[in-house]
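Example 95.
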Amino acid sequence: MKQSFAVKNMMCAMCVAHVRKAIESLPGVKDVNVNLASNSALIEYDESKISPEQIKEAVVAAGYDMDTTPLSAASDNSEDEKKKSKGFLGKLFGR
Ligand SMILES: [Cu+2]
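Predicted structure in complex with copper (II) ion:
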């Protein structure tokens, strides 16, 4: 499962490193990519081993905050792709 979550209270690269460390040290987390510009963390995790709530706990323990509801941008990627191809086909058929 790969999802993006909103992370709050990050101010600089050090914060990003703290948040990343807190998340990546958790069991069940395979990969973490924390983005300061978008205040988000793209997390690849095993949902049978860890929940967003548990990930949030680690982020809060590190001094930051995280939404447990995934950002739609990450989970809706396939939807966007569908829309794009629909538009492309629409153009192709002159609609
Ligand atoms: Cu900082």
